[in-house]
Write a structure and sequence with these properties.
9 helices; 5-stranded parallel β-sheet; Rossmann fold; 219 residues; 17% strand
Length: 219
Amino acid sequence: MIIVIDGPAGSGKSSTAKEIARRLNLQFLDSGALYRAITYLWLVNNKPDLQQFLDRLNSTKLKTSCDHSNFKVVVNDNDVTESIRSQQVAENVSKIASEPAIRSFVNSYMRQLVENGVYIADGRDLGTAVFPDADLKFFMQASIQARAQRRYDEAVKADPHILLSQVEENLKQRDHIDSNRKADPLKKADDAIVVDTTDKSFEEQITLMINIIQNKLKL
C-alpha cells in the first residue's frame, strides 16, 4: 500500500510524511532525498558532463533504509544522509532531477522498494507519474513566503550566512523548473486531495491528513 504527498518545495511534505509515518507506524519514503543523493554524487565528482554522468548512472549503488520516519541514503557505500541537505545540493537538484534518465532510475528504485509493506512517500510527481494507482493522494501547497520561511529556518542552522531572500529566489527557480520540465512535471493529480498549509500549524495539518487516511483507508 502506498500513500503519496506531492507538492512544491517547502510546502511541508517531508516533515508531514515523516510524522504521519511515526504516528500510524508506516514506512517513510523520501523521494526528494534520492534526487538529492544523485545531485550530491554529481557535485562531488566535479560536475561532469551530464551525458557522461548519465552513462555511469546504472553502475551507481543506491541503498536506502527507512525506520518509520528516519530515511537513510547510502550511495556507493557512502552514507550521504546529512550531506545531501546542503544549500549547494538544493540549488542544483532541480536541474539534475529534470533529466529523464535520472527520473527513470529513481522511479524504478522507488517502485521496487514499495512492493512490500505500507508506505507514505513525498515528492513532486508521485501521484501522476510514479504511483498513479496510489491508494491515497495528497497535494500540499503554501504561499511562496511561507515556504521560504520554513526552508530558511532549516537552512540557517547549517549556514548562518544564508539570506531569506536567497532561499525565496531558489524556491521560485525550483518551482519554475519543476513545473515546466518535459519529464514528469510537478502538477496535482486529478484525484489528489489538496491541503493548503499556509495558515495551518503543523499539528493542524497532521490531524487533518491522519483523519482522512483513517477514514478512507481504515488504518
